[in-house]
Amino acid sequence: MKKLLSVLVLALGSLSFAAHAADAGCDAKATEKKLAGAAKTSFMKKCEADSAADAAKATCETQAGEKKLAGAAKNSFVKKCSADAKAAAKEDAKKTASAACETQAGDKKLAGAAKNSFVKKCVADATK
């Protein structure tokens, strides 16, 4: 169990690193395509998501190789591992967005229902 947890933490770390590396690559591609505004934003989101998915799959493929899996067992492992990494990354993004939104709500001196409503909408917008 500890080994699985440490492998998942390493996978998430590599996803984070890959996302930063992909950001520069995606930005260069967007500039090359002369994208701006909403088109660039949409392209960047898709490019970064694709890069993160590719990095997760590569990490999972490596783990499957270390476990000496082959055939259907390897495919099943890689599919589940990639889905778990994606879910963990999404949860991490939600936590990060929530913290940022809480800070913004504090800066705006919101409290009670107004704060809850603001944070909920802010997190939803940030994680789209």
From TrEMBL:
Extent of the signal sequence: 1-21
Keywords: Signal
Highest taxon above the source species: Bacteria
Name recorded for this polypeptide: PsiF repeat-containing protein
